[in-house]
Write a structure and sequence with these properties.
- The chain has six helices and seven strands, in the order βααααββββββαα.
- Strand 2 (about 115-120) and strand 3 (about 125-130) form a beta hairpin.
- The strands form two sheets. The chain has a four-stranded antiparallel sheet, with no helix packed on it.
- By secondary structure, the chain is α+β, with helices and mostly antiparallel strands.
- Helix 1 packs across helix 4.
- The protein has two domains: about 10-15 and about 115-195, PH-domain like (Roll); about 30-105.
- About 20% of the residues are buried.
Amino acid sequence: MTCARPDVSFSLAYELQPGDIADIATTSPARKRRRIRLIGGLAAWAPLAAAFTAVTVALDRPSVVKDSPGAPAWMYGIDVVTWLLAGVMGIAAWRLSPNRLARRAWRKSPRDHGRHRDELSPAGVTSISPDGSEHFSPWTTLARVLETNNAFHLLTDDESFRHELPKRGLPSPDLIPALREFLNHSVGRQPPAAAQSTAAPEPTP
């Protein structure tokens, strides 16, 4: 039995940790796509900047380029611009790193430090913060479930994170498969698994 209350199918209790926030940042589809684009752009742009700089330096060395009058001034301008762009992309990718985002969010949200509780019922998910405040989400507002090694993440239609359910919050790791099945049946505007198993059969004509 996962919870003493009959209307609750699963109950999770845990101390929030910076790693939980990093898990969200690692899983976020939008943030992941943006960081991949930045890293890909940096991987393509940095060699181009290095190659153009090498040409500029070679033109300034008569021993390398015979009878060269030297690199024109505009080439130095392009060198500066290309390296600045590479630096901007590198800094942006670094700022989107999951661990950095987690440390910053952890410092900015001291009210979230402490013991959390999540209760899952056939109606939806209730998250209870350390200060006792509650946030309820019916299953109809949740469109997707993403699973990592550490947690289940519940997302809305626009890929916003609504709930994080750390697996360590379960009374026993043996309940993870049952919780996975329950979420897969409940998320995405489908009837909850518990409701399916307890629904009375329709009368036959």
